[in-house]
Design brief:
Layout: H1 3-21, H2 27-42, H3 45-67, H4 80-96, H5 102-118, H6 121-159
Length: about 160
C-alpha cells in the first residue's frame, strides 16, 4: 500500500475515533471500515490477523455497550466541549501510559472540563461522577476499544 492510501486509511481511523465522541456518527464502524480497507489492500498474514482480532473486539464492545445502563444525559452538562476534553484526555493517556492510560485520561479530561466550568474541586468531582454514570462509561468502553484497534494498526504499519 502506498503512502497516500495509508494516509487516507489513517484519516478514516481518526474520523472513527472522533466519531465515537460525537453522537449519531458511527465511529466504531468507521474504524472497522478503515481497518478492512487496509487489510484488503495489504493482504498479509499480519493484516488479516489484525482485521479478525479487531472485528472480534469491536463486536464484543457492541454487546458490552448493550449491557451497560442506557444513556441519560438530560440535565447534565454534557457538551461538545466535554467530549473534546474527554477524548483528548483519553488519547494523551493512551500515548503516555500505553493502553491503560486511556481510562484515567478520559476521566481526567471530563474532570478538567468540569473544573474549568465550575471552579471548585468538590462540584467538579460530583459533576464528573454524574457524567461518567450517565454517558461516560459506554463512550469510554467504545473509545478504548477503538484506540486499541488504531494503536495495533499503527504498530503494524510501522513495522511493515
Amino acid at each position: 500500500m502506498d503512502v497516500p492510501q495509508l494516509l487516507l486509511v489513517g484519516l478514516v481511523l481518526l474520523l472513527g475515533l472522533v466519531g465515537v465522541l460525537v453522537p449519531g456518527v458511527p465511529g466504531t464502524w468507521l474504524v472497522w471500515a478503515g481497518l478492512m480497507w487496509w487489510a484488503l489492500h495489504e493482504r498479509s498474514a499480519l493484516a488479516w490477523s489484525l482485521l479478525v482480532a479487531g472485528t472480534a473486539l469491536l463486536l464484543v464492545v457492541q454487546v458490552v455497550k448493550w449491557q451497560l445502563p442506557p444513556r441519560r444525559p438530560h440535565g447534565l452538562p454534557v457538551t461538545p466541549r466535554t467530549a473534546v476534553f474527554a477524548g483528548a484526555g483519553a488519547v494523551v493517556g493512551f500515548v503516555l501510559v500505553p493502553v491503560v492510560g486511556a481510562v484515567p485520561g478520559f476521566v481526567g479530561g471530563v474532570y478538567l472540563c468540569e473544573r474549568l466550568r465550575l471552579g471548585g474541586h468538590g462540584e467538579a468531582w460530583a459533576s464528573t461522577r454524574a457524567v461518567m454514570r450517565a454517558v461516560g462509561t459506554s463512550v469510554l468502553v467504545e473509545l478504548f476499544a477503538c484506540l486499541l484497534v488504531v494503536g495495533a494498526w499503527v504498530g503494524a504499519v510501522s513495522t511493515a
